[in-house]
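S1.2 Input.
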Amino acid sequence: MPKTRSFSPAQIGNRGVWFAAVILTAWLLLLSFLLTYHSPGTTPSGLSLSWKDPLVYVFVLLQMHLYTGVFITAHDAIHGVVAPNNKRLNNAIGTLATALFAFNNYKKLSAGHHLHHKHAATEHDPDYHRGNPNIVLWFVDFARSYVSIWQIVAMAVTYNILKLWLPMENLIVFWMVPAFLSTFQLFYFGTYLPHRGEHHNPPHNARSQALNHTWAFVSCYFFGYHEEHHTQPYLPWWKLAEAREGNVQ
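S1.3 Output.
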């Protein structure tokens, strides 16, 4: 990997806050629209969504991508690079982002993620598989490391409250399904592909996807440039493309 010039987290100033604000606001605005969305031709007394409506699938993918951005924002806060000059603001944004992502716990997520960096792709890594690299079993282990019974209870309570005013199918299709798909997206591009198989760069034990910035952003906000993230965890997600090229300054 090309050597990079020195970079200080403080150099990003408030840009991390603005990136976070755009992602969180876009997620909230789209979700607010989708929770009351009705497919053309549906009636008030029937289902609000039609599986023949192509926009339903487009909206699910868009919301999934924004959910991933919400989590990546929380991830950057864990590394202190959303607001590097204001720790309280940084952690507040991280706490909000993790709560919006299916009521995750910021402190628990932070502790687990720092262990992941310290023991990447080893038996002490909470994100690594438990001896069986099968993608399904690995994903189950990955999810179990962070999902708690209280999250499930919070989701259930919120769902039952919201469905008093909002269509049940909209809550499931646009709130729950994108969150699950995003979780798998984060696992696949941010854990499975970078850390599977043998590695020859300890202690990082990570690899990066091929250089393609468009696909890297669409797939996981440049998080597929994973070796760069592990060697330079002080870089926010929007700097990883430059790091992949060896141009960070």
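S1.4 Remarks. The chain has ten helices and no strands.
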